[in-house]
Design a protein that fits this description.
The chain has 330 residues and is an alpha+beta fold. It is 59% helix and 15% strand. Residues 303-330 are annotated as: Disordered.
Length: 330
């Protein structure tokens, strides 16, 4: 009985060891299965190759694989973690790039919109000034004609007849470098540029541009200093008449303060003031129309006498000279 009991206990211990070993092997099988799943799905063709292989052949094949794996024992084992980290960074950078690209597109659209508004404003203002230039020049020179053109960097003028809706003109706005008057005082033949005109003609064209701009963007008052000095009598009358019309215009009434030595501006002035400079002292007094005209005529007589003789011109430059000027207030 004692021997049978010992044999039974021994068998139980052996069974317990076997069961324990069996449990360990099951855990190993589960671990290997998990590792196989982590490697990815095994192609059916490869599965068929090893499905019917014996354990001995499988172990031999495993040994060969392990030998091959040893060649890569120095591979960076953190490569996978680094790859995942860099992949996340790449995704974040790509997302940021997409946001920046979208922002850039929005900025480009805004710049394009503002450029279009700027170009349209430039062309709209230019057309308005060019239209007024033609009208004002016609008022000052009834038998003449004038136009205002834009000049590009290549000195290729674009006439004022263009439309702001023309995409070609909008593209050329950035090439514009200025404006240039083209005028003819006879209305016949070729038109002339500023450098081809006389001093009086240049002064008249400059006044035309000032009045053209004034009609587009009126100012409350203008101060003109001897603008009629280089003009002949006929053009002085035309300028005086234009100033009078502008001063009482219903659309944009404007005050003009001018200085002159000529009678034409005095004739249309509402108020006149005479200024004298004698012995280094200036004095000013208000004059009525007849006195102002006499004041001007006196100056004209003095100038006429000074032109007749070199001796009189030298005498006129002596310290006792009286300088006279009339200020007109429209």
């Amino acid at each position: 009985e004692t021997t049978a009991t010992e044999n039974l206990q021994e068998c139980e211990e052996r069974i317990e060891k076997i069961l324990t070993k069996r449990g360990v092997e099951k855990e190993n099988i589960s671990g290997f299965a998990q590792r196989i799943r982590e490697l990815g799905s095994l192609p059916n063709s490869e599965l068929e190759k090893v499905k019917n292989m014996s354990i001995k052949k499988l172990m031999k094949s495993l040994g060969k694989v392990n030998e091959e794996v040893k060649k890569y024992s120095h591979v960076n084992k953190k490569a996978l973690d680094q790859f995942v980290n860099f992949s996340d960074q790449r995704e974040a950078l790509l997302k940021r790039k997409a946001e920046l690209d979208d922002g850039q597109d929005q900025i480009k659209k805004l710049i394009k919109h503002l450029d279009r508004q700027k170009d349209e404003a430039i062309m709209r203002t230019f057309r308005g000034v060019a239209k007024n230039f033609r009208e004002v020049f016609k008022e000052l020179v009834p038998h003449g004609r004038g136009e205002l053109v834009m000049v590009t960097a290549s000195d290729n003028p674009q006439t004022s007849s263009g439309s702001s809706e023309d995409p070609d003109i909008r593209e050329q706005v950035d090439q514009f470098v200025g404006v240039s008057p083209r005028v003819s005082f006879t209305g016949k033949g070729d038109v002339f540029r500023m450098r081809q005109l006389s001093g009086g003609q240049r002064a008249l064209v400059a006044l035309t541009l000032i009045f053209a701009i004034q009609r587009c963007d009126p100012a409350p008052f203008y101060l003109f200093d001897e603008i009629d000095q280089a003009l002949d009598a006929n053009h002085r009358r035309m300028v005086a008449a234009l100033i009078k019309r502008q001063a009482v215009s219903k659309e944009a009434p404007t005050q003009f303060i001018t200085t002159t030595f000529r009678p034409e501006l005095v004739a249309v002035a509402n108020k006149t003031y005479g200024i004298q400079f004698q012995n280094k002292v200036s004095s000013m007094k208000e004059l009525n129309k007849p006195d102002a005209m006499e004041f001007i005529n006196t100056i004209a007589a003095e100038e006429g006498g000074a032109q007749q003789s070199e001796k009189k011109r030298k005498a006129a430059s002596a310290p006792s000279l009286v300088s006279k000027r009339v200020v007109n207030d429209r």
